[in-house]
Every structure is written in structure tokens, then in C-alpha cells.
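haha ok so turns out i had the wrong file open the whole time. this is the CORRECT one, sorry everyone. sequence first:
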Amino acid sequence: MKAGIVGLPNVGKSTLFNALTNAGALAANYPFATIEPNVGIVPIPDPRLATINEHIETQKIIPAVLELVDIAGLVRGASEGAGKGNAFLSNIRDVDAICQVVRCFEKAPGGEDILHVDGTIDPIRDIDTIDSELVLADLQTVESALPKAERAAKSKELEAVARRDVLAKIKPVLEEGLPARTALGGITNPDQRRALKGLGLITVKPQLFIANVDESDVRGEGELAKKVRARAEATGAEIVPVCAKIESELGELDPESKAEMLADYGLEEPALNALAHAAYHLLGLQSFYTAGPKEIRAWPIPIGCKAPQAAGVIHTDFERGFIRVEVYSVGDLVELKTEKAIKEAGRLRIEGKEYVMHDADVCHFLFNV
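then structure:
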């Protein structure tokens, strides 16, 4: 799963991206790093992995990860190709969720001015600029696709009709300047839902706001961050306050120094942890685990995923040859201490192809190819 970081120039987007990927690079037993200049792999902090390890010895622990894309080129007019507009639109269509970085600080950490592209600091104006560019890009897509869809729908073929109908529903929403996601509640037809997914619209993707705050406002309680919080609440989005400078410095420290710095700011954990969890939630993901002597590992799956599809996340052969899954919860392990005790207590469940996975399931998949 991919999340894209977007933002106007000089809002701290690249600093934040570098802080995220540097923090990942320090995690043990996993090759976290940037895999391209603008793509990084970020671990999802998960204390349940350590809990499992208290009862099952292993050689390494591997958390679930999120692929993060630093999407450059967003300026006013990007929808019409301004700046790196065309590359920007291509990159953002390839992600599953959008993390919008909004500047909520006046001056740079050293006290010097960082010029804003629009001359003044106004987070709501910045949000409106970004949202407008994304809506305009989607409107161009819809206006281009609708005439062809109308011609194809004359065949009465279900897929073609669904595509025409969903385009007709989305177009007036975009014309009002609203994102396509606001129309999702009115699109309940399964064929139309599938057609919508195939359109590659940007504003249908879930979105969260990252309020890049000053060192003096690490909890995002200042006036600028409050404005972003109000917008998030009004649109059903999430907000995570982050001081990119602090997070960048934390990523370079050893655990003891990091704990001291967090204490100095009155924080229990890096804000990047909250951001990783928020992005995970935004994507509608949950984790299941595999545990053995070689590794304990968290695997991300969509909420509502069935057992064969979860097995396929590990390897396609597991899904293709799925027979059954032996499953228990992390809570069972905490209570009963060993897998042997779990089995003896009748808490090791045998589930088939229709089993819907739960968060914190620990699984052994049986398959035959």
C-alpha cells in the first residue's frame, strides 16, 4: 500500500519525508530505506510484535511497512501542466491515499524567514490550492471520458452503462469544486463502484492533513494548526501535528538520547509513530502475524479480508493452494503463554476459506500447490 505526501513549496514536505525514511533506516532487522529518490519504506510501530516475542523466541522481528511517496511538482496550475504538473499527476494517481502537508509555522527553526510561495502563511488557503488542483485534474479526466462512455453505453452492456452513470454522478460534484470522495455515499451500485475504481480519480482517495508545526507547538494547539483541525473535522479527514525539524533530529539519535529529547518536549513517542498509524488507518488496514523461530512478522491486510487473500499476502502460492488456517489471537498468547497451552485449552481455531481475518490474529496457513 502506498501513501503520497503532497504539499506546496516551502511547507517542510521534503524534510518530513526524509525524517520518516531516516527513522525507518534505523529500525533493526529490516532493510528500511529510500528505494528511489522519492520513495521510502516506513515501518508501522507495533508493540504487539514485542509481546509475541516475549513468548516465542525468534531470530528477527519484522513490522508491517508502508510505502511512502514524496510527490513533487504541486504548484498552482499543476492540473494544467505548470511546474512538474504532468509528472505530479502521474505519481499521485499511483498512490492509495494522500497525506497533505500544511505549513503551520511562521519562521524557520533558526528564526529566519522562509518565503511562502504565496507571500503569507495561511494553511487554509494552501489546502484550498491543493484541493482545487486535484479537483481540476479529476474534472479534466471525467470530461474527457464521459463522451466516450456515453457512446459505449448505447450497447446496453452493463459495464459500459455503469461507467457512464458513475461519470455522470461525479461530474457535477467536481464542477462544484468538491472532491469525488464526497459523492461516494451516493454510489452504492457494485458495478458503478468497480467502474469508479477504474477511473483512477485522485480526489476519491482518502486524505489526511499533516500540520507541520513549530517547536513551540508540538501538540498542534496553536492558531494555525487549529484552523487545519477545524477543516479536517468539517471534511471527515484526520490530522496529525508533526514538527518536521524535531522528527528529523530524533531520527539521528540513539534510543537513550531520543528518550531524553522526547521528554524535553513532553512527548511519549515520536510524532512520526502517530503519523504511521494514521496512514495505516486511513488505508483501512489491519495486521495479522506469523511467528516462528526464524521470524515474527506483521502483515498488512485490508479490514474484512478473508483467510485465503491474507495467505496470498505472504505468497501467491499460499492463496492458490489454501487449505485452512490455524489461528489464535495475541491476547490468547498473553493469557496462556505458549502455543501448546493454547491448543490444549481449545483456543487454537481451524478456519476455512470464508474466515474473515481479525486484527491481531496469529496464523499458521496450510496449503498445497
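The chain is about 40% helix and 20% strand.
again sry for the mixup
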